[in-house]
Structures are given as structure tokens and as C-alpha cells.
Write a structure and sequence with these properties.
about 10% helix
């Protein structure tokens, strides 16, 4: 996957690396399968909406490295997930991009005071907008991140 992503991405426009850093904020919702995994891991858990905060530094035209924090409020046990992430662009045009993202870190059960390791995979990410502001959605992520995520990012 990385080899295909890198070869596709290096054929992109030359000015796509002008803005190296980005910050994004978004929301997400858990799937039934995610909720069942969380119940098995943290006991009683009623999944609620998630808030995502992410910072990425674009190492080159194809790869961005950074951190992702996800906060989920629940009536039973709120969760906080902190991940180191790597994003791989499949292609990145002036107004549209597609990517995949991989993350690894920890998930904290706030009320349980339990810490477990987590891996997150976002196979399909889509961005639409201009060079500085873009809307994004991530479809079918696996791990502690919800089934559908969306938000806005700012590049600088």
C-alpha cells in the first residue's frame, strides 16, 4: 500500500508541499461493532459523539506525520485516545485529495482509569477545498475512531 501510495503521489503537482503543517478539528460517530469492542474492553460503555484534534507535519508530498487526540463523552465511561499517526496521500490535487492513515497509541477510560494500547487504520480519507482550508471525511476507520468522521483542516 505504501509503495503504491508513494508512486502515485510523487506524480502530483510540484507546489503541493508549500504548506507543510496542518491542524484539523472534527467529529465522529461509533459503529455498532466499535461500541461492542469498547464494551468488551472497558465494561459498560454507551458510545457518544467524538471530537478529534489533529496536528500533522508534511515530511514530503506524500507523507505526513503527527498526532491525533480523540475525546468521546459517554454516560458510562468517557474515553480519550492519543495516537501517533502517519498519513499517506494516494493523490493530492489542487482542490481534491484522497489518503489513508495509520495510527498507534493509547486509549484511556476516564472513569475506569484503565489504559490500553490501540491501533487505528483509516483506509479511505477524502479532502475537498483550497490549498489552506479543506473539509475532510474518513470512511470506515478501524480502531477506536468512529465509523464516519468529518471536519475541517487548516494548512500553514
Amino acid at each position: 500500500m505504501l509503495l503504491i501510495s508513494t508512486s502515485l503521489c510523487y506524480s502530483q503537482e510540484k507546489d503541493s508541499l508549500r504548506l507543510r503543517q496542518e491542524f484539523s478539528v472534527g467529529i465522529g460517530a461509533k459503529s455498532l461493532a466499535d461500541a461492542m469492542i469498547m464494551v468488551g474492553t472497558f465494561g459498560k460503555h454507551d458510545p457518544g459523539p467524538e471530537m478529534h484534534l489533529q496536528y500533522l507535519y508534511n515530511v514530503n508530498k506524500c507523507i505526513g506525520l503527527g498526532t491525533l487526540a480523540v475525546f468521546e463523552y459517554s454516560n458510562c465511561n468517557s474515553l480519550a485516545t492519543f495516537n501517533a499517526v502517519a498519513r499517506f496521500y494516494w493523490f493530492n490535487k489542487r482542490r481534491f485529495a484522497m489518503y489513508s492513515k495509520l495510527g498507534a497509541g493509547i486509549c484511556l477510560g476516564i472513569e475506569d482509569e484503565e489504559i490500553i494500547p490501540m491501533i487505528n487504520l483509516m483506509p479511505i480519507g477524502i479532502e475537498v477545498g483550497d490549498s489552506k482550508w479543506r473539509f475532510f471525511t474518513e470512511i470506515l476507520p478501524l480502531g477506536t475512531i468512529g465509523i464516519l468522521n468529518g471536519g475541517i483542516k487548516y494548512s500553514f
